[in-house]
Amino acid sequence: MALGAPALVSLLGRRAFLVMALAPASAAAYALAWTERVMDGEHPTQVVEWVPGLGLELAFRMDTLSWLMLLLVGGVGALVLVYCSAYFSPTAQGLRRFGGVLTAFAGAMVGLVTADDMLLLFVFWELTTVFSYLLIGHYADRKASRRAAMQAIVVTTAGGLAMLVGVVVLGVQGGTFRVSEIVADPPAGGAVTAAIVCLLVGAASKSALIPLHFWLPAAMAAPTPVSAYLHAAAMVKAGVYLVARFAPAYSETTVWRSLVIALGAGTLLVGGYRALRQYDLKLVLAFGTVSQLGLIILLVGLGTRGAALAGLAMIGAHAMFKASLFLVVGVVDAAAGTRDLRRLTGVGRALPWTAVAGGLATASMIGLPPFAGYVAKEAGLESLLHGEGPVWVDTVVLWSVVVGSMFTVAYGLRFWWGAFASKPHLGAPPARANAHQDLRAVVARRPVVEAEEPPIDPARIHRQPFLLVGPAVVLAVLGLATALVPHFGEELLAPYADTYPVGEPGHLVLWAGLTPALALTVLVLVVGVALFWQRARVERFQASLWTGPEADVTYRRIMRKLDDAAADVTAVTQRGSLPFYLGAILVVLVLGPGAVMVAQTAWPEQLKAWDRPAQLVAVAAICVASVLAARSRRRLKAVILVGIAGYGNAVLFLLHGAPDLALTQVLVETITLVVMVLVLRRLPAYFSNRPLAASRWVRLGVGLAVAVVMMGFAVVAPLARVATPISVDFPAEAYEYGHGKNIVNVTLVDIRAWDTMGEISVLLAAATGVASLVFLRTRSGEILRASGARPVTTAAGSGVWSEGEDPGAALRRRGVTEQDQPRMLVWLSAGRTLAPQRRSVIFEVVTRVLFHAMIVFALFLLFSGHNAPGGGFAAGLVVGIALIVRYLAGGRYELGEAAPVHPGLLLGTGLFLSAGVGLVAFLLTGNVLGSDAYDIALPLVGEIHLVTSLFFDVGVFLVVVGLVLDILRTLGAEIDRHAERAAAGREPGEDTGPFEAMEPDAIGGGRR
User: Taking the model in full, what pTM does it have?
Assistant: First the structure.
């Protein structure tokens, strides 16, 4: 559904959200269908092998906790998507992306709460992080949205990495990555204790617990549906789910209880306290959500059965009332145009159904009977009154919940009063959306100063459509309906609460009699109402206190210091010197692995210097060329010497009986040599203007050290092998399964075809990157052809590769007038586009003779490579060399005549063909990139042995040809254009008009 969401939005507009709602609704329906069986202890499990060799599997399991979370994720998600169909304007931008991402997020949450494999759980965990980043930053044109999205992904990703460490340690120590098996038989030890801490850090980052709570209020920059789903029922509940999932196994450990109590109680109090001073309705709910998450973490993580039951009930109640309240804020904002509670007045009369939904949800949030929030909170207080820990710990936890609940009552009443009550003008500068209210400036007797904007006019508030109000009403009514049958909720949730290790079973009831818990509830309500009634004094009291550093400000300072430190480190290590970078890498290689090799490796008793004397000659040539290259000051000299070393390696391959490797090495060295020479045209002739003799000796020393270390690796590596290499089976596999005798080629296109697929993808990316760096004008599909070149009227400075005046022009034209120019044979189609002084008749004739022969030879290598030296890679290199020859002989227009096709088409077609072969093989045989052979008899031709992997090889061939062609267009033709424009006194990227960059270049020259 997520993949089809953009198409649905294009077809149906915002009504497509109604169709998308079916996806999460189906998850909720599935959970409901399994309700009775889950209550009976039946837990459906589905396992699909993912990577059997590594023991990775897609394991899903639904127990009571997963059932509850699946019901909430699916049900609330469906209602939020219905809400979206009326929330967004029909002309809103980005709805296709938003719909797809929101639906994908719902799918990731479904996977997260049902995954029974810890590694799979982590994958879904990170998917929710990525999708939430995209959703929070939906309004990408707003700085607040971009900053909030970046803040959220930084915090949650850091926590996710810590969680990954915990998951890996826990899985290794437990001998399994199955969540159900770890919880049933939890491992112990010091490493497991560290893993528990890592898991709780991940939960704290996801559920916005202190000190990482600041990202959640900032995320209110997201659209209201995102806040209602991610920050009430889905994303922030992922951390709660993680704590609830592992609490039965580790809640009795000291580190678990200490962290849960500190994080839960602290977050409960800090969030509630901060909510009392907010004026933006979404921020009131945001800090309230932080506070409620602390309460839920405290209940589900404390470790007793009664608290766990209350915590599970609170998970459901919170999802309903908080999602409803966020949706209500969206309705008010759409109707009144503001969320500033100081400007809102008379909204309740104008929007009665919205006010009713907000009232019901607020009543559930503050714990009024008979609502779900009251039932859950009453059960929580009852369980805390009968704690299982030390008395002082139980007392601290109990009164933290009581005080936090007082704050909840106060900010809950503040929310409903601010949103719907008819009130006189309070005065005050309007609260900027998503901005934290700074009360330190409030020093007057009244909490605010004169307003800059008047309150809204209730008469201008217009009713909102049913699809906008209905979801909030449904969720609010559900909070009432579920509380009327608390025994049913207890039957559903008690099986999971009973898995906790200690404590008496809890109960969910509407009336338990006159109990201490009821007295505490009355105390909470009385004090909470008093805090709301005296809100002005409370604000002044908060303003008079020292607040300490804000978490959000601290985060920004840390990130700024991190940026400064990164800049300082980069200034030292990233000096813009490629020799320095390479030297650092090589020195580490010598000092690290090289030192280990010398100190701890067993050396062979005998070494054979060479098999034949010719190898010594080749090695001597390589050594001499390498030493001279390291000492060279001229760039061109160094390039040629490095090329000689490469050709020497090709000779070694040939002498060792590997003609295929030798052929490929020669072709690669040739193309590399030409490409480097093309680049050298735009670089100084010398590496440095100073002799730098000392630096040459340093380079030589590093090179020799690396050479010795690499030779040592080549000697000791075979001795370090502890198992039989898989390559010993390659000859038989190449012939039996790959249907070919050329082991190298069959390995590339069959045995290791996945590796080849990755490599050609890298080639395509490299070609795109090089072109992006070189092209200073729009890179279009234009192909330079000789027929489109623009003639010139002057002989001076005309033609391709012209560099000013042509001193030999008069000599060439001596005795020949313009009227009686002799006719000349045209050896190359675009030869006339070259500057006369750059043309070579001999080179053009040789090119004309060799080009087609090289193409035929390349085709021979392509089709014979399965059983003889060759293959698609070598064939593509031969064609590439042929194109290089045409370019060097005739310039960029000759390149267009030789290959009148855009390189991107060749690259894309080659990659598509290679991938398509794999897909066809999968459809026919069930094996991706598998191959089959067919013997076909053709008249006049004879027997043809056709292997399907040939088509994969053709794809490789096209990618290589496209890569070389793209390099010639960028490092060749485009750099030519830069040089010619520079010679004409113009910048390479400077255009005289809007269409100048697309005009053909001027040509001239020579006799026609």
Answer: 0.72
